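Appendix B, example 12.
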Amino acid sequence: MMKARIPAAEDATPVPPARSRRRSLFWRYTRYLVVFALFAGGVWVPIIGYLKSVPPTYTSQASLILPGAGVSASVNLDSIGQASSYASSAFANNSVSPTETYKRLLSADRIRADAAERLGIPFPAFARPRVELVDQTGLINIEIKGASPEEARAQAEALLATFFAELDRLRSDDLEVREQSAVAAIEEYRSSVTATRESVTRLQGETGFLSDDQFAAQVVENDKRRAELAALQARLQDRTAYVAALEKALGMSAAQAARALDLAADEEYMALKKDASEKAALRAEAASTYGARHPKMIAATSTYEQAAEAALTKAVAITGLSPAQARRLNLSQEGDRTALMSDLLRGEAERAGLAAQYEVLAARYEAERIRLEKAAPAAARLKDTQRDFQVAEAVFASAIARAQSSKVDIFASYPLVQVLENPTLPEEPSSPRKKLAIAAGGAATTMILIALGLGWVRRGIIRWLTTPGNTAAVATPAEGASA
């Protein structure tokens, strides 16, 4: 009986699978840790060296601004003229940028040298400022660095002080040059004014007018008198029409109205008028009861006629009018016509007063008009001469005013600049930036860990993808979906 042959491989003692797996896992961990240590060292060693070796630097910031509005100055000289001085806006000329000019001035070596001298430090020790212009604005941002916060702010303040002192010097030099150019012209204008003044003095003695304003004031005054005369005439016409309307409504003149009011003020006449009214009432009552020839009607009529005749006789005696005129007065006791007659008398008094005033004012106006017409030629000659003098004096005064106003207009060549933000005292160093360096190292370390993690799981992903069953399991749902 033949014995089964045992393979040689089974005779050898196999290595336990668990021990081999642990050994392989150990070396794999070792390799990944070594690789991580090398890459992490390549990242963190330069970062730590940078943070340890670079000294801290502090940055002080300041801001300047150029206002956009222009500056104007105007000098008014009474009866002479006006002198104006205007400095355009700093940004009115597109060919010249004041911000760019000031940027170059802030960065100039002479400004740095003066600022270093102001602080008492060597020129190379003074940091070069970083000047930045903000587009579409008049802002100028300044940054300057120092070894400490106090040093940075001190250098920034010294730079601004030197900058403003240099601007003042440039403006003073510009004003001095402009003033010198105006001195010669002013002397020529002075000679012309002196000669013209002598001519005016001579004509004042010949014409009798001290100035053209004197004649003009008299003309204006006469024109006002003419306007007053026209207004007075309108009022007179109004009062005349008013009196005429009342006379027509009352049927009597103003004189008759005055007499009628005298009657209204007479108590005896008013008593007779009242008695006549009562007798008229009795007659009317008798007429409604009896005939025209009845004794009572005749007696009532006779009584009324006697009372009316007595009242008419009294009215004729008081007013001096005829019986027919006195009868037309039609004075009632209710007072309506009395009020109208009072208005008529007042209106007539106003009309008479306005008429007298109009006559006096018209006579004054006509006399003054004739006098001014005769004086007009002499006043015209004086006016022409005074105009020449005023022109010469205006030119002379304007030249002086421009020279003086140019001293006020110090921002014509170098626009106004103001400190918008004083130099700051930095709280933290601007470099080295520890937080940024640490954040960059942390990001690089994270990327290393992600790369090592992908390398660690690559075998399992490859093995799973190369297994036929897994591939078929992935393809089966896709085929079912397509079917």
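Residues 236 and 283 are 49 Å apart (CA to CA). Residues 26-54+432-482 form one domain.
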